[in-house]
Design brief:
Elements: E1 7-11, H1 15-26, E2 30-35, H2 45-48, H3 50-61, E3 76-80, H4 81-84, E4 93-96, H5 102-115, E5 121-124, H6 131-134, H7 140-144, E6 146-151, E7 160-164, H8 171-183, E8 188-191, H9 200-218, H10 222-228, H11 241-247, H12 249-262, H13 276-283, E9 296-300, E10 306-311, E11 318-320, H14 327-331, H15 338-346, H16 351-369
Parallel strand pairs: 1-2, 1-4, 2-3, 4-5, 5-6, 7-8
Antiparallel strand pairs: 6-7, 9-10, 10-11
């Protein structure tokens, strides 16, 4: 079947929903972005669309920008679930991006089925809820065209897109999404098994949580860890803790708890336990960019200029960032080849070398043990 995507409906305008909407607008797609009506909203359109309009406005002002040009935002039409759900009938692809609760997602899909045009693609951006649980009770046509499509935040910049079919998903739908994600959305699409947290979050959350525990054990600082896990490893400058701030600490903790509950026999189950300092941050609502403070916080200096302070993981106080230095990193400054650089990093005799060995050896062992549980391939 030949498919053409001209219009996409995004259900949920939170951090991910609004930014996924922007990315589709980036490639010329018309987008319908919907969310709930505020409690006690007046009858006028502006009041009823307040949540979705404010979410989109916030996304468009965020840094890094989710959209190529501000004018592209005109391709996004906003609305609400009560008044505009009927408009999804004109969409070629409907993507659910509401709160990570199975009961709420199933309510949304029940409503979607009332208005969705048969044959329309329907997917969920869940970061870990089993896909097959969401299409229970839905029609045969719905189940045939339903799949998990897990984007990563921020969608414009992170290339990974996980495609998670159920046994009832049509192979044609899977092939189309794999192809469309790469050709039009600029993604590296990965086919996943429908297991808890899929591939990236199962491995990624293990990597981050085990690193959280390792950092506490070794007494490393936020600045030191981001120095060790950024460009020197061929990764973005956001490294570890800055990336956590972008993703949102609440999201990370939610996925980690979900894996711990869903995989009680995982040999590394203790690694998914939330460290005390992280639990306290969540309690304080220090969730990252969305709350304007997490592992990092922008503050006004005495001279009136803004500067970035990092969190002391022992005292939970923010302090001016200190440039981290390690002898092992100094040895790699002239090594451009990442493969050769890694050899030096892993052989380091200082704290950096100890960190790399402890971190990577544990990660590689964990990845190897996940085959064929979450995928049949080591890499593709």
């Amino acid at each position: 079947m030949n498919r053409t995507i001209k219009k996409v409906a995004i259900l949920g305008s939170g951090v991910m929903g609004s930014r996924i909407a922007c990315h589709f607008a980036n490639i010329g797609i018309e987008v319908l972005l919907l969310d709930i009506v505020p409690k006690d909203a007046a009858s006028d359109k502006k009041s009823r669309n307040k949540i979705v309009d404010e979410a989109l406005a916030f996304a468009l002002k965020s840094n890094p920008s989710p959209i190529y040009r501000k004018t592209f935002a005109k391709r996004i039409t906003t609305g609400n679930f009560d008044d505009n759900m009927k408009d999804i009938a004109a969409a070629d692809w409907i993507i659910e991006v509401v709160i990570e609760r199975l009961d709420i997602k199933k309510q949304v899909f029940e409503n979607v089925e009332k208005y969705r045009t048969p044959g329309t693609l329907i997917s969920s951006n869940t970061s870990g809820i089993p896909i097959h649980l969401m299409n229970e009770g839905r029609s045969e046509d719905f189940q045939k065209h339903f799949c998990g499509t897990h984007f990563f935040n921020p969608p414009r910049y992170l290339r990974l897109l996980e495609i998670i079919p159920t046994p009832k998903t049509s192979p044609e739908v899977v092939d189309f999404l794999m192809h469309y994600g790469e050709l039009y959305l600029g993604k590296t699409t990965v086919l996943c098994k429908d297991t808890p947290a899929f591939i990236a979050n199962r491995i990624g959350v293990f990597g981050i949580l085990s690193l959280f525990h390792l950092v506490e054990k070794m007494g490393l600082t936020v600045d030191e860890v981001d120095k060790l896990t950024g460009p020197v490893l061929g990764r973005p400058k956001s490294a570890t803790f800055r990336t956590c701030d972008v993703v949102g600490l609440d999201t990370l903790v939610h996925v980690a708890n979900g894996v711990a509950q869903s995989c009680p026999t995982d040999e590394a189950i203790d690694s998914f336990k939330i460290p005390g300092y992280v639990a306290k941050m969540v309690e304080n609502k220090w969730l990252g960019s969305k709350t304007e403070q997490g592992f990092f916080k922008k503050v006004k200096a005495a001279n009136g200029k803004s500067e970035i302070h990092s969190l002391d993981l022992k005292t939970l106080e923010y302090k001016a960032s200190v440039k981290a230095k390690f002898a092992t990193l100094e040895q790699t400054k002239t090594i451009d080849n990442l493969r050769e650089r890694m050899k030096v990093l892993l052989a380091g005799k200082d704290k950096a070398g100890e960190f790399y060995r402890s971190s990577f050896y544990g990660l590689f062992a964990y990845v190897s043990n996940r085959i064929p549980e979450i995928t049949n391939e080591l890499y593709k």
